[in-house]
Amino acid sequence: MSGQLRFLTGYEQLVKNLLKSLPEDDAAAQAVGGSFEYYGVLEHALLRGEGLRDGSTVIDVGCGSGRLATKLARYPKLRYLGLDVVPELLDYARRKAGRLDFRFEKVDAVRLPFDALAADFCVFFSVFTHILPEESYVYLEEAHRVLKPGGKAVFSFLEHASAASKPVFDANLAWVRERHMAGHLNTFLHRADLRLWAGRIGFEVAALHLGESKFIEVDADCAAPPAVAEGLYALGQSVCVLRKRGG
Ligand SMILES: C[S@@+](CC[C@H](N)C(=O)[O-])C[C@H]1O[C@@H](n2cnc3c(N)ncnc32)[C@H](O)[C@@H]1O
Description:
The chain has helices at residues 3-21, 24-31, 36-49, 67-72, 87-97, 133-146, 166-179, 191-201, and strands at residues 57-61, 79-84, 103-106, 119-124, 147-157, 203-209, 216-218, 231-233, 238-244. It is of the alpha/beta class. It is globular. The structure holds S-adenosylmethionine. S-adenosylmethionine (SAM) binds at residues 4, 7, 11, 32-33, 39, 61-64, 67, 83-86, 89, 107, 125-127, 130-131.
């Protein structure tokens, strides 16, 4: 069985268990790591800082329950495709975003169902953290195919260089020490390798931020008080922005 299928089974089961034991809103938030509003605001603000505007075309891979989609729903001319492996999360995200023209589709392969040279952004928030590096690489090749020249692939990742990633590795270690086997897949990547990948695929590295770096500017338009006030924020996972050459 491939790593992807192992992971697919894991995530689907996790969501089913959460839906059985919690009210739907709580289950949908917990399935993507919690703090639905908070991370929705930060992901939106981060993309605005990278040039997202009304009229952008955005592919949100591993969109989960719609933390980002609900924030992007405010832009009437924005084109959006959300992809995920868990149908219940797609269904929730579709309802929560409330936009009939936003597409939400299930993926069962590392492939983007989108035309070449058509997207401005291809984003993966907290997705490369849970799949194998080879799958992330192929997703980046796919992102490169669907992006317009100058378009951006934006993804968050775990790395040993970041103090913010350390608690995740420590928890992985504690699990293995206790049970003598791995638990949930939390993948760590290395920024030197990301630079190599970018060059091979045809991207330039536009930015690399540590998980603890407060580089996300939440302005009055993005803020959602009291959950998130205006100010500078860190995402908690490192962030890589790749620009497709030629724009
Ligand atoms: C931690 S959640 C993040 C969700 C969303 N990006 C966000 O920030 O709210 C990870 C998501 O990736 C999805 N996922 C896992 N493997 C995937 C794959 N191979 N392709 C696409 N999505 C995947 C999971 O179902 C889950 O919804």
